[in-house]
Design goal:
Order of helices and strands: HHHHHHHHH
Distance between the termini: 64 Å
Radius of gyration: 21 Å
Low-confidence stretches: 1-12
Oligomer: single chain
């Protein structure tokens, strides 16, 4: 059965992979590992998988691909809803180097305490009055990746309204 032009797998040549990589990067930032995983779908089984590395190296040389920029972008988006632990885990899961992840977290807007208070105040109106409520509010913040020290400070009322 013949396929129409444009259907099926993409060319495994450098230009085909490069075009796909640039198209993916034009939509949003990607980390090197994440982009390599996506491009792997378009490589024929009998072709050279090192072609992906060559494409990624060329993109980095042209400054179109940057783990630091990706880490900063993901941190900027996630920091409004999640704590440092969750953001660091998301970066690690996407293959971002530890140094790039730490740099992005240090540069993130606001302190974790201020961000935790903002997340908490969107959900709750008042500080907990009993142990059950304290546990419920603490678990809410914990599932969003805030540290226990930060959670204790928010629930003790030590966070100020920014």
């Amino acid at each position: 059965m013949a396929t129409k032009k444009g259907e099926g797998r993409a060319s495994t040549g450098g230009r085909g992979l490069m075009a796909r990589a640039v198209a993916l990067l034009s939509r949003r930032e990607h980390g090197r590992v994440e982009l390599a995983r996506k491009l792997l779908r378009y490589v024929e089984p009998d072709s050279d998988p090192a072609e992906i590395d060559r494409v990624l190296d060329a993109l980095e040389a042209q400054n179109l691909l940057s783990d630091e920029r990706f880490a900063a972008s993901l941190t900027r988006v996630r920091a409004n809803r999640y704590g440092d632990l969750r953001v660091a885990r998301d970066l690690r899961d996407r293959g971002v180097a530890v140094t790039a992840a730490e740099g992005a977290l240090r540069a993130s807007k606001g302190t974790e305490l201020a961000r935790a208070y903002a997340v908490w105040s969107r959900r709750f109106d008042a500080l907990p009055t009993n142990a059950d409520e304290r546990g419920r509010q603490g678990r809410y913040l914990q599932t969003r990746g805030f540290t226990m020290d930060t959670i204790r400070a928010v629930l003790a009322g030590k966070a100020v309204d920014p």
